[in-house]
User: Which sequence fits this backbone?
């Protein structure tokens, strides 16, 4: 059986053992220090006295790669273009798609398990894709970061409070996830069969002008959030903040309602800026929703349980 370690590591161990022998150490002592048997140490010592001047470890056993290094480099470039460029409807590489691509490009047939190992050698990994909207525009996002965001931050020098606002919905039905159980004994989890039970939230991060404190305001609704609820929440923000307010949110339909826009026009303290379309990663409130998901326990059945889960999130502070 081949010992554990790369060829380079095994060779370093052998060189270290031979160096100890040259310094007059006994083979049993050397074997104990490098973690091998005395017989292996004596064999290495005998091989150095033969025709070969130095002992060199053998390459790892196994079938060599059926693709040449040049073909592997070409495969990496092809995969980097995405699967849509080769006629697939979704931009994701699966083992079956890569298997067909290798056969088409190089005429080499690979098993699915061999394709998996080949991708692993190319430093690829099997990952869950991130959902991105069709309207997602990287150029618009880059423009917003470079030009809009510095302009928004300059409002703080004028004593304005930054307000990042967003909405989210949480299901009150216990999610079913895989769990460990004895074979043949499927676990059962009591849950509600009414899959329409949801709780909707409006949340806002309030950043003080000097950025010394970040506050979180949140309101929970059991019904759907409309323009009336957005106006109600904005009134709540205006009551608790003095001075100018810079409101940053997305262009969701409830934000562009005529009633909401009329309310903003009636309050000159509100200055509204918009995130680019389909760019939730720019809104820091999305991190609050992610933190809330960590606190939510399976099996929430009512608003009271959700409010209990909101308490640790409300206490979160950042400076």
Assistant:
């Amino acid at each position: 059986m081949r010992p554990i370690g790369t060829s380079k590591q095994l060779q370093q161990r052998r060189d270290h053992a031979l160096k100890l022998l040259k310094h007059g150490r006994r083979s049993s002592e050397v074997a104990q220090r490098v973690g091998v048997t005395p017989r292996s140490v004596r064999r290495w010592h005998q091989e150095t006295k033969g025709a070969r001047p130095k002992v060199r470890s053998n390459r790892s056993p196994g079938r060599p790669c059926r693709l040449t290094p040049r073909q592997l480099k070409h495969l990496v470039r092809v995969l980097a273009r995405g699967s849509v460029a080769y006629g697939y409807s979704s931009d994701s590489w699966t083992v079956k798609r890569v298997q067909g691509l290798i056969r088409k490009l190089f005429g080499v047939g690979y098993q699915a398990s061999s394709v998996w190992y080949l991708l692993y050698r190319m430093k690829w990994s099997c990952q869950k894709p991130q959902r991105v909207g069709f309207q997602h525009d990287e150029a618009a996002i880059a423009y917003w970061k470079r030009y809009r965001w510095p302009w928004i931050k300059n409002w703080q020098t004028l004593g304005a409070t930054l307000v990042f606002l967003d909405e989210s919905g949480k299901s009150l039905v216990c999610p079913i996830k895989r769990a460990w159980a004895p074979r043949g004994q499927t676990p059962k989890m009591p849950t509600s069969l009414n899959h329409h039970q949801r709780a909707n939230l409006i949340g806002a991060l309030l950043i003080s002008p000097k950025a010394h404190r970040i506050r979180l305001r949140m309101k929970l609704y059991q019904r759907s959030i409309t323009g009336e609820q957005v106006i109600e929440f904005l009134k709540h923000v205006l009551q608790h903040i003095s001075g100018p307010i810079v409101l940053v949110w997305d262009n969701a339909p409830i934000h562009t309602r005529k009633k909401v826009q009329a309310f903003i026009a009636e309050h000159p303290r509100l200055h509204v800026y918009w995130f680019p379309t389909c760019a939730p990663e720019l809104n820091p409130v999305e991190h609050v929703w992610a933190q809330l998901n960590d606190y939510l326990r399976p099996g929430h059945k009512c608003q009271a349980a959700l409010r209990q889960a909101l308490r640790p999130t409300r206490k979160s502070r950042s400076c």
Q: What stands out?
A: The beta strands are 161-171, 198-207, 214-221, 245-249, 270-274. Confidence is low (pLDDT under 50) at residues 313-319. The radius of gyration is 31 Å.
